[in-house]
Structure formats: structure tokens, C-alpha cells
Amino acid sequence: MWKFKIFQLKLLESKNFWRLRFMIGITIFLLIMSYISYLIFQIVTDKPMIQLTHEYLDKLSIPDLEICCSESDIQITKCVFTLDNGTSTTSTTFDNCTNFIQRSRVENNIYCYLFENNYTSTYFFGNPDINLTGPWVRNIDFYFKIDNITTMTSKFLSVGDISVQLMDPNFGLLWKGKAASTADLYENQKFKLQMNAFAGIQNMSTMVYFTKQTIQTILPNDISAIFGTTPNYHSISYLNTISRYFPMHSNENVSAGNFHGHFNIAPGSFIHDIQTEKL
Ligand SMILES: *[C@@H]1O[C@H](CO)[C@@H](O)[C@H](O)[C@H]1NC(C)=O
Ligand SMILES: *[C@@H]1O[C@H](CO)[C@@H](O)[C@H](O)[C@H]1NC(C)=O
Ligand SMILES: *[C@@H]1O[C@H](CO)[C@@H](O)[C@H](O)[C@H]1NC(C)=O
Ligand SMILES: *[C@@H]1O[C@H](CO)[C@@H](O)[C@H](O)[C@H]1NC(C)=O
Ligand SMILES: *[C@@H]1O[C@H](CO)[C@@H](O)[C@H](O)[C@H]1NC(C)=O
Ligand SMILES: *[C@@H]1O[C@H](CO)[C@@H](O)[C@H](O)[C@H]1NC(C)=O
Ligand SMILES: *[C@@H]1O[C@H](CO)[C@@H](O)[C@H](O)[C@H]1NC(C)=O
Asked: Transmembrane region positions (predicted)?
């Protein structure tokens, strides 16, 4: 009997203690959960750090080009690939740039063509400092002709000109209207507003050098990023250009109206800048 009473008391005590422990446990659990939620919130709304790395490439893809003219249609009368095999150069001419050029759009009296290299994978820009098995492309010359230069110049103060934009082949054709990240939005806007465009000008020769840059962003709500493992990077590559203009000398082919102007595309560097967001 006495033994039993003691036992009851003990049971009662330990139950109270157990309740207390339970309450403390729940409280601590809730505190930890709210702290974790706070941390997750901080991670999700955090501004990521940027890491810049460089990669030395042995070759670069031939860019896609969009070539446009206002008020008049145009012709790319020829494109000339200068090929190098390490010891000497040769050139291959494509009249009308056939196989590379197709109409991309005509809107608001703007006539556009797309130059794409997906017809052949044998052409790429080669790094001259690396012994590549060639031949590889050193530069590409484009000759353009404006069909109705009278109409065109009657609408503008400038002499006849066209505008050209370079895109990394993985950027895809034109503005797709959907942007997964701020980097996409930035690239799309740059393309739409022609920030990176250069001009082909009547009786002028344009030299264009490009470099490649890639931005790897963490998309919002990336689960891997929240838990601190490697995020599923969303990457977008684009080309930065520098252009220089030189007057052409009087030329029988210009006088004959075979073309109005010319531009030349070549890599400016084989160093690929990669910008990666870090948590
Ligand atoms: C490069 O091309 C030239 C002319 O076609 C040829 O004589 C030379 O052997 C080639 N060099 C190599 C390394 O293929
Ligand atoms: C190039 O285009 C012009 C005009 O469209 C055409 O007259 C000419 O025959 C074409 N040349 C070749 C080699 O396709
Ligand atoms: C090149 O790629 C574009 C876009 O992917 C496609 O529309 C076009 O038909 C392709 N051209 C060839 C010759 O495969
Ligand atoms: C490229 O190859 C040539 C001949 O094969 C050699 O003389 C030269 O040193 C090589 N250059 C490099 C950077 O490997
Ligand atoms: C240019 O366009 C105008 C009207 O816009 C037309 O009268 C003229 O004949 C055209 N010239 C050529 C060479 O096509
Ligand atoms: C372009 O050059 C040709 C001769 O090379 C000349 O006849 C023509 O007037 C020039 N046009 C302009 C706009 O400078
Ligand atoms: C004019 O074009 C012809 C044929 O493409 C070429 O043989 C000639 O060298 C060119 N003349 C000039 C001054 O570029």
C-alpha cells in the first residue's frame, strides 16, 4: 500500500515534468522553425554575390547576325570567309551569302535578314595562339547593297546605312518575349533597343570585334539554392562588340553599284568572361 502510494506520487510528478518538457520542446521547436523560416526568407530575398571567372577558348562559334535596313530592302551580295590553317590563309566566297542568309522579318518598313551558321558546323573562329587543326575562320567580310537608296536616304539625314546585331548562337533568334531572369531581360532589351548594334554605312568599311560573356544566374525559388547545394544555373551568353569605321576608296565595284558598303566580323579576344551568382 505504502509502496503503491509512493509509486502514484512518482507517476504524478513525472507526468507534470513530462508536460513541462513537452511544452518546452514545442516552444524550442517553434523557435527553431521560425528561425529557419527567417533564414530561408533571407536566402530567397538575398542579393547574390557575383563571381567573375575567365576561360581561355581555342575556338569561338560563328555568331548569328541580324542585318536590317529601314525603308528599303537589301542584299548581301557576297560574304567571304578568310580561312587559316596555321601556315597560310585562303578565302571562300559565297555569292549572295547563299546558305547562310534567310529573311527573318519585315515590319514597319524595316527589312531584316538573319545570318546563321547552322548550315555547317565546319566553320568556327580559331584562336591563332593554339595549334588547331584547321582550316578555321579568321574573319568574315560581308558586302551589302541597299535596293532603293533614293527612298532610304530621302527619309533620313544620313547616307545609306544598315544596322547589324551580333548574337551568340545559343541566344536564339530575336526577342522571344519571355525572360526567366534579369539577365535575360537585360539581353532582350539590349537586343530590342539595339544597344549593341553597329552600322554598315555607304562607302564605308566597318571593322567589328566581338568578345563572349556568359551570365549564370540563380532563378528565384531555386530549391537547391535554398538548401545551399549547387543551384541549377540558368545561363545566357552574349557578345559585346567594338566597331571601327573607315572610308572606302573609290572603287570600280562601288561605282558599278555591286555593293554600297562592307563590314568585317572577327573575334576581339578568346577570353570568355563568366559571371556567376553565388549565395
Ligand atoms: C595550309 O594550306 C596551304 C595552302 O593550301 C598548304 O600548302 C599547307 O600545307 C597547309 N598547311 C597545313 C598545316 O595544313
Ligand atoms: C544573287 O542575287 C541576285 C539578285 O537576287 C541574282 O540576280 C543573282 O543571280 C544571284 N547570284 C547567285 C550566284 O545566286
Ligand atoms: C537553322 O536554325 C533555325 C532556328 O533553329 C531554323 O529555323 C532553320 O531552319 C535552321 N536552318 C537549317 C538549314 O537547318
Ligand atoms: C605549333 O606547331 C608548330 C609546328 O608543328 C610548332 O613549331 C609550334 O611550336 C606549335 N605551337 C604551339 C603553341 O604549340
Ligand atoms: C524606289 O522607290 C520609289 C518609291 O518609293 C520608286 O518610285 C522608285 O522607282 C524605286 N527605285 C528603284 C530603283 O527601285
Ligand atoms: C560613294 O562612292 C561612289 C564612288 O566610289 C560615289 O560615286 C558616290 O557618290 C559615293 N556616295 C556617297 C554617299 O558618298
Ligand atoms: C571588283 O569585283 C571583282 C569581282 O568580284 C574583283 O575581281 C575585283 O578585284 C574587284 N575590284 C576591287 C577594286 O575590289
From this structure: 20-41
Cβ within 8 Å of residue 70, ≥6 positions away: 109, 110, 111, 152, 155, 156
CB 81 within 8 A of CB 91: yes
* Rg of the chain over all Cα atoms, to the nearest angstrom: 31
Whether the per-residue pLDDT at 20 is higher than 60: the answer is yes
Ligand 7 geometric centre to CA of 258 (Å): 10
Report phi then psi at 184, rounded to 5: -65, -45
- The set of protein residues with a Cβ atom below 6 angstroms from ligand 7 is 251-253
Convert the pLDDT of each residue in 99-137 to its tens digit.
Answer: 899 998 899 999 999 999 876 678 899 999 998 887 899
Pocket (CB within 6 angstroms of ligand 2): 95-96, 98
Q: Which ligand is nearest to the CA of 117?
A: 3
State how beta strands 64-70 and 49-56 pair: unpaired
